[in-house]
Amino acid sequence: MTVKYQExxxxxxxxxxxxxxxxxxxxxxxxxxxxxxxxxxxxxKVLRSPHAHARIKSIDTSxxxxxxxxxxxxxxxDFADMPVEYAASGELTINFxxxxxxxxxxxxxxxxxxxxxxxxxxxxxxxxxxLKLIKVEYxxxxxxxxxxxxxxxDAPLLHxxxxxxxxxxxPDKPSNVAKRMVFALGSLEEGxxxxxxxxxxxxxxxxxxxxxxxxxxxxxxxxxxxxxELWTGTQGHFVFRAQLAKVLQMDVSKIRVTATxxxxxxxxxxxxxxxxxxxxxxxxxxxxxxMVMTREEVFRATGPTSGANVKIxxxxxxxxxxxxxxxxxxxxxxAFAGSSVGMASMCTFTRYDLDNVRVVGNDVTVNRPKVAAxxxxxAPIAVFGVESVIDEMARKLGIDPIDFxxxxxxxxxxxxxxxxxxxxxxxVETLNxxxxxxxxxxPLGPDQGRGIATGFxxxxxxxTSSTVHVNEDGTVTLIIGIVDVAGGTRATMxxxxxxxxxxxxxxxxxxxxxxxxxxxxxxxxxxxxTFAGGMAAVLAARDAMEKLCRRVARxxxxxxxxxxxxxxxxxPAEGSGTQFKPMSLEEIAREAGRTGGTISGxxxxxxxxxxxGFGTHIADVEVDRETGSIKILRYxxxxxxxxxxxxxxxxxxxxxxxxQGIGWALNEEYVYGADGVLQNPGFxxxxxxxxxxxxxxDSVIVEVPNPNxxxxxxGCGEVPIIAPMAAxxxxxxxxxxxxxxxxxxxxxxxxxxxxxxxxxxTQD
Amino acid sequence: MSKHRVTATVNGxxxxxxxxxxETLLEALRDELQLTGTKEGCGTGDCGACSVMLDGRLVxxxxxxxxxxxxxxxxxxxxxxxxxxxxxxxxxxxxHAALQCGICTPGMLISARALLERNPDPTxxxxxxxxxxxxxxxxxxxxxxxxxxxxxxxxxxx
Lengths: 764, 158
Known about the structure:
The complex is a heterodimer. By secondary structure, chain A is α+β, with helices and mostly antiparallel strands. Chain A folds into three domains: about 20-30 and about 460-605, Aldehyde Oxidoreductase, domain 4, CATH 3.30.365; about 35-375, Aldehyde Oxidoreductase, domain 3 (Alpha-Beta Complex); about 425-450 and about 615-764, 2-Layer Sandwich (Aldehyde Oxidoreductase, domain 4). Chain A contains 19 helices and 28 strands. In chain A, helix 17 crosses helix 18. Chain A is globular. The N and C termini of chain A lie far apart (about 60 Å). Chain B has a five-stranded mixed β-sheet with strand order 2-1-5-3-4, with helices on both faces. Chain B is an alpha+beta fold. At the A-B interface, helix 1 and helix 17 of A face helix 2, helix 3, helix 4 and helix 5 of B.
């Protein structure tokens, strides 16, 4: 369902109140999963594969089981095999046959770090000691890490049962290419015929990790009557419950999951890892089990985003109109199929209004950890290639890069090549605001350059529910089922509910309910929190207000239609001709018990009509030709968010997303040795941006309301990470005349590119 | 495995705990003393989430052994507020929306307080380099740096 946008005077929405979870977070009170402890709990630890690819011949746990203090052990024998069955988990699709194999290896291990056994003991040191006593016999197999290598017909094969889906006729040989997808519109041949300029380029990006600072953690308790309580750091406790019920073959009703305060997720906490192991260990030991990953485990075994190979070919007319756009995206899925290549394919060109498009996406299994969603999954990778080619075109034709994009910009009515026609969007507005921004005209010094790039993300709605309790004193408790993944959704939903009731923000206390408090809520993904969660909260508030009005009608003895809610009070409806003394929320609440009982409002919806988000970025850089290091001088984000409920939290999304994108562009990458073992599983060698790496980020919030949300909200969290790689690469080209088509643009790569360019010039 | 008895002062209180030889100060604080405000992000001294003051020195508590705390004074985030009154840095972090998930916040606050005790009037660059040992993945540091500069201004009475 959708709820129509209504423009109205606002008292709370659009202001910047303090977040309800704030004081707990600055005083150390906030409880994250690793902060929970249960009486009698054991500590669980996981034995992981040291090989990139191997057949498990045998597992002997007898010595470990005999170690004093060891209370339970689990291996593949403790979990049921699962047939192929697909389900949505965040923005990616999962397959339970793979889920059960990823949480605990069965026939083979597929990556360095793949779980092989788990143990629960009375202390962490005993559990670690026990892992050393488990004997696993492996038959080591050839492995493949690189995506293009994996696509070759003679590449080491991960899954003997995997035949490329999406190819006709069905292949007779299994392949690491799990799926090939094609999106097309118009005729490429016609489009390239009309082109005066055709540019074809190839790009490569490395896998990067979400890099949340809180490692995965959970505490599970399994009772003798088969009930489970689980506290875990998750982006979606209902989705975790569903997945756990499936892989543990339990009733959904027997599992109760509490989403603890979340120490960052960014898509990486959409999937179960230790949770089923902790529950199984608890079932076997009859004690609660706590499991906390080390940082090394987080890097080796939880999902980074795909590394990829991207080929882009585009044609345009002399005056800068794009006539044809062709892309091939080859994405690493990790050990199991299901990368973000589908979404990346749909985002590749969607910022532009094009007649002739083709995008081919390949989802490729390699001996790396199974990828997970990462903020606008896949989009930054494809967009890096496209925006680089567009930059080259604009430069060759002598057209201003923003003007070039304006000539081709998607707008309301644009037919996308993946299906829908776009509704009201604010892309052109972001381009115009970027062009008018003072940062776009600041002079640049030697070896300094400016780059432009743009981003698009769909945003989603989905199943969401909410409850509003009107308490005895007229305050409001708001129960939400959307995990606040830290962007501030508890605050924004409380603001919308306060606005609806016409009461103060601090009279509404938002709480994320556990899985027993509400009906199913989809995971916090696709920038749906404030959009879908807000819609559900508003509807729950409206349901409560309707009940409040009916109650007042009864108390005042007037017809129900004569009562309307306005300015925090039940008042005579305009034009009803009825007169009665209005009642405040507090007055009704105080009498509620005697006049019919407690008043609560509910909503259970499938939110639709998520408004797509668009952004334009301006990056200014300086390149040190001697060291190859790139300094970000300025970074400007202009993005349409529909409506900024809490502008500071929108800025927070812009700033955080941009800096993650800067890390992707400049430093971050997974480094594997020839043995297929990850060489940099720690923050020292996997270098995320630190405070001294980045400048202040200039944010410009554009508000083109989404017609399908009561306050006009579009999601805003994912778009900010899409453009940085391309914007920075374009800025580097502008600074030193060298174009980098490999990410990250770390100093050694930049130096190499500078040297290669110099050599090419000499040879000319 | 025999344990060591350690006595120390934490946030002004005399404390006593038992810890294994290899146990870190971070583990002792969190598991033995139930002071879970100090966070573990890496366990290797790279993220700063476990920053505490040890005898007036800013340290990563994951790189200090529990037994090394014997006779020493430790300050953690739980000791920053005085009664109802938040430390100016805590207040400014809230006012500037300088935290999102909050997992890095205790370490950031301890680290920022150590900076302001040493340098009450830092430049933006000095704040950025001082906090370079504290990773934050949510905020892009923008509002954290603003909050620290604003807190410094207020604490100087400027």
